[in-house]
């Protein structure tokens, strides 16, 4: 069945996305929009990073431009020409944080009457030199380690790596640490052209949806049914926090069985090397940014995670006595 699905999915998914194919002006417009967003995202990242560290947003944006500027290719250091964009968003973060710190320290010694001219100039000059000498090579090295490390793990570990990554994502969501993965997703897209990690991690929400369905069908408590019914639509659309904090985590064991279901879905996504071309919310909407020939396979993995989360929870994860607080 999986082989038939694998052979059929490219043809069917291309038909589904046919309105975007070829030299269509709609396809061209969307490509320009998407390309501009990811091509110059470093400017927005620099702006917000500098703001968070107490610097001027405009200087943070300039730090991003330092990394992205095509003219940096004319600079030769240590016998090699600089590669524009080298270091990616990690380099941008380093440069933006640095320029914010420099700005704050320089401002202490500059008279207020000269601050508007002198402080930004000194901060930009120091940051520019350090960026091209240190941050771009260092950011590039870190980016290479992250992207090559993750792709090697997925290539070597295969379905096992997919299971582990899928099964451990929900605990990250509980702690809020999943937000720190955004630069990694963006760096994967920037470095290899797509993101094989996001579809695997998206199975975390799918396993939880399956677990919630199992609890809904098994419980007799009306309050619990209402809580699940209100949170399921958002869970299927990739927003899992209502189900996590309102249903599975308070019950305890269903949270674990949801993670196991997510692992099964993650193993499927890893087995077929499903990847996205952008970042977005998980669940059903993620299908719109999956590589065109892999859309049906992604949806199949989503259904498998639903089913696995349902089965694990229905058989092992939930008894109605556990829902005493929902009386």
UniProtKB/TrEMBL annotation:
<dbReference type="InterPro" id="IPR050558">
    <property type="entry name" value="PTS_Sugar-Specific_Components"/>
</dbReference>
<feature type="transmembrane region" description="Helical">
    <location>
        <begin position="114"/>
        <end position="136"/>
    </location>
</feature>
<dbReference type="GO" id="GO:0090588">
    <property type="term" value="F:protein-phosphocysteine-N-acetylmuramate phosphotransferase system transporter activity"/>
</dbReference>
<dbReference type="InterPro" id="IPR013013">
    <property type="entry name" value="PTS_EIIC_1"/>
</dbReference>
<keyword id="KW-0808">Transferase</keyword>
<feature type="transmembrane region" description="Helical">
    <location>
        <begin position="156"/>
        <end position="177"/>
    </location>
</feature>
<dbReference type="GO" id="GO:0005886">
    <property type="term" value="C:plasma membrane"/>
</dbReference>
<keyword id="KW-0598">Phosphotransferase system</keyword>
<feature type="domain" description="PTS EIIC type-1">
    <location>
        <begin position="1"/>
        <end position="327"/>
    </location>
</feature>
<feature type="transmembrane region" description="Helical">
    <location>
        <begin position="26"/>
        <end position="47"/>
    </location>
</feature>
<dbReference type="GO" id="GO:0008982">
    <property type="term" value="F:protein-N(PI)-phosphohistidine-sugar phosphotransferase activity"/>
</dbReference>
<keyword id="KW-0812">Transmembrane</keyword>
<feature type="transmembrane region" description="Helical">
    <location>
        <begin position="85"/>
        <end position="102"/>
    </location>
</feature>
<dbReference type="InterPro" id="IPR003352">
    <property type="entry name" value="PTS_EIIC"/>
</dbReference>
<dbReference type="Pfam" id="PF02378">
    <property type="entry name" value="PTS_EIIC"/>
</dbReference>
<feature type="transmembrane region" description="Helical">
    <location>
        <begin position="59"/>
        <end position="79"/>
    </location>
</feature>
<feature type="transmembrane region" description="Helical">
    <location>
        <begin position="271"/>
        <end position="290"/>
    </location>
</feature>
<dbReference type="GO" id="GO:0009401">
    <property type="term" value="P:phosphoenolpyruvate-dependent sugar phosphotransferase system"/>
</dbReference>
<feature type="transmembrane region" description="Helical">
    <location>
        <begin position="296"/>
        <end position="317"/>
    </location>
</feature>
<protein>
    <submittedName>
        <fullName>Phosphotransferase system glucose/maltose/N-acetylglucosamine-specific IIC component</fullName>
    </submittedName>
</protein>
<keyword id="KW-1003">Cell membrane</keyword>
<keyword id="KW-1133">Transmembrane helix</keyword>
<keyword id="KW-0472">Membrane</keyword>
<keyword id="KW-0813">Transport</keyword>
<keyword id="KW-0762">Sugar transport</keyword>
<feature type="transmembrane region" description="Helical">
    <location>
        <begin position="197"/>
        <end position="217"/>
    </location>
</feature>
